[in-house]
Amino acid sequence: MKLTFLGTGTSCGVPVIGCQCEVCRSTDPHDKRTRCSALIETEQTRLLIDCGPDFRQQILPQPFRKIDAILITHAHYDHMGGMDDIRPYCQFGEMNVYADSNACKSMLEMLPYCFAEHRYPGVPAIGLHEIHPHQKLSFGDLEVVPFEVMHGKLPILGYRIGSLAYITDMKTIDDAEVDYVKGVRVLVVNALRFDKPHHSHQLVDEAVAFARRVGAECSFIIHSCHDIGLHEEVNKKLPSDIQLAYDGQEINI
Description:
This protein is an alpha/beta fold. The protein has 6 helices and 14 strands.
């Protein structure tokens, strides 16, 4: 199974428009962060986690072949604002999208023309499926188990796919939900920055503590803003088994 980080940034992306900090001015491609999204692939199956407003830019370098399903973590625009750009993939058939009730409702409001009785020719063909935590899903040779994390006061979904767990926008998690993550080899988890606590996002220390709690062999930090610092410098500060992920990075699991 291969994981490709299509995007690893927050809702503003990096560089932030109008910002002149050293991260936003960096010429290191590792410091360029589009909105969070990931591809999970085997020889038989291809899953997309989230489809934000940078999806077109992110997917162009990837081989053009069928995406079997899109897994949405939550209803915020930076995680599902690129859904209209899936239309080329609908030549393989209806695109099946899996999301919780909040995200399903938001998608119907955001893309009403995709669900109209008489659809305009060429709009994305979307099969929208409401899912719930702990509801096992099977796609080809991949089994997916959604679990619940809290994005501030908003319950959202993380996903366990075999020995991988993918979490974005988490602030807290219930003890019972941690059991669905324990034992993974690879953990992907969010950390906004090192300091200045945020009401709905973890900081780096919180992400490191969570990785230790889960017991993952290796962990990758995503959903980081420009305040986290330069990619090269951040990785010097992190434990050897934890890395700051970057756009385009590929991990074989």
